[in-house]
Automatic annotation (TrEMBL):
<dbReference type="InterPro" id="IPR020084">
    <property type="entry name" value="NUDIX_hydrolase_CS"/>
</dbReference>
<dbReference type="InterPro" id="IPR015797">
    <property type="entry name" value="NUDIX_hydrolase-like_dom_sf"/>
</dbReference>
<keyword id="KW-0227">DNA damage</keyword>
<comment type="similarity">
    <text>Belongs to the Nudix hydrolase family.</text>
</comment>
<dbReference type="Pfam" id="PF14815">
    <property type="entry name" value="NUDIX_4"/>
</dbReference>
<dbReference type="InterPro" id="IPR000086">
    <property type="entry name" value="NUDIX_hydrolase_dom"/>
</dbReference>
<keyword id="KW-0479">Metal-binding</keyword>
<keyword id="KW-0378">Hydrolase</keyword>
<dbReference type="InterPro" id="IPR029119">
    <property type="entry name" value="MutY_C"/>
</dbReference>
<keyword id="KW-0235">DNA replication</keyword>
<dbReference type="InterPro" id="IPR013785">
    <property type="entry name" value="Aldolase_TIM"/>
</dbReference>
<dbReference type="InterPro" id="IPR047127">
    <property type="entry name" value="MutT-like"/>
</dbReference>
<dbReference type="Pfam" id="PF02581">
    <property type="entry name" value="TMP-TENI"/>
</dbReference>
<dbReference type="InterPro" id="IPR022998">
    <property type="entry name" value="ThiamineP_synth_TenI"/>
</dbReference>
<feature type="domain" description="Nudix hydrolase">
    <location>
        <begin position="4"/>
        <end position="131"/>
    </location>
</feature>
<dbReference type="InterPro" id="IPR036206">
    <property type="entry name" value="ThiamineP_synth_sf"/>
</dbReference>
<keyword id="KW-0460">Magnesium</keyword>
Amino acid sequence: MTAPRSIQVVAGVITDPRGRILLTRRKEDSELAGLWEFPGGKIEPGESPEQALRRELLEEVGLEVEVGTPVIRVPQLYPSKRLTLDVRHVTVRSGHARGCEGQALTWVAPEKLRQYSMPHADLPVVAALTQPAEYAITPDIDAPFDEIAIERWVVRALALCAVPGRRVQLRSPQAPRDRFALAIERLLERLGSQQVQLLVNRDTELAAQFGLGLHWCAVQLHQATERPSISSQQPLAVSCHHLADLERAQSLQCDFAVLSPVLATQTHPTATPLGWDGFAGLREHVSLPLYALGGLQPDDLVTARYHGAQGIAGIRGFAGEWD
Ligand SMILES: Nc1nc2c([nH]c(=O)n2[C@H]2C[C@H](O)[C@@H](COP(=O)(O)OP(=O)(O)OP(=O)(O)O)O2)c(=O)[nH]1
C-alpha cells in the first residue's frame, strides 16, 4: 500500500465587527464539494504559512490581511491524503469579502458554526473556537470522607470552577457513592447561578440525578451500545488511550474525549507516554474534540493546540489554586 500524499494547508479565521466568522463553500467540482470551510489553501513550495495565507485570502476572498495568532493545527487523514490544517486568526487590513472564484460565502455567529457541514479537519477548529480550553479534574475526597473532608473537597472544587473558560470533571473514585453524592450536592448549592459546565466521573445515575454531564472511562465506552440516558443538553466525554477507544468514542457520538498520557505522570507511573507526536498521530484518525492529559500545565496549551488538541486536562497541573 502506498502512503497517502501529504499536504499542508493554511486557513484564516476572519471575524466581522459583530463577531461573526467568514466561511466559504467548496465548489461543486472540488474534493469535499459543497462543504463549508475557513478560507485558505495549500502552502506552495518556498512559502511560509503566513505568506501562503495572505496570498490565498487575496486570491479567494479579495482581502488584504495581517496574520495573527494560531488557533489550532489539525492533522487529519482523508482517504486520498494526509492533511495538516494550520488555522490562524487574521485581521483585515483592506477590502470587502467576496467570492473571487465564484464560491459562496457567509458570515456565521460562533455558536452556529456547528450547524454547517464542514470537512472533518474543521471540527476540532470549531471546538477550539467555541469550547473551553481547559478541562480541570477534581482530586479525590480525602478519607475518612467525613464532613471536614467533604468541605475541603467542595472548597477545592469551587476554586477549580472559579477560573473562567473551564469545564470541570467531578471525580472521587475512592469515596463511597453516598459521600460523593453529598459532596456534589454541597458543591451545587454553593455554586448557585455560577456558569460552569460540570461532568460526573463514571456514575450515570448521579449525572442524571443532578442534571450534569457524564465522563466515562474507556471500559464503559466499550461496554456501551448507545449514548447513556443523561440530559441531551449535557456533554458526554470519555477517557481514551488507544485508537480503538477514539474510534468508538466518535461512533457513539461522544461530545469530546481526553487522550492520555501525553507526558509521564505521577498518577499513572507505569503507563508509557504517547509523546506529542504520538498524540498527533492518533488525532489524525478522528475529528472529535480532544483534550490532552498527562503531566501537563495550563501553559502547555499552545503546544497542545499545535498538535491538534483543542485543550488540556489535568488534576495536579491545575492544583495551584489551592495548594
Ligand atoms: N482552505 C481550507 N481547506 C480545507 C479546510 N478543511 C479541509 O479539510 N481543507 C482541505 C480541503 C482541500 O483538500 C485542502 C485545501 O486545498 P485547496 O482548497 O487549495 O485545493 P484542492 O481542493 O485542489 O485540494 P487538493 O484536492 O489538491 O488536495 O484542504 C478549511 O477549513 N479550509
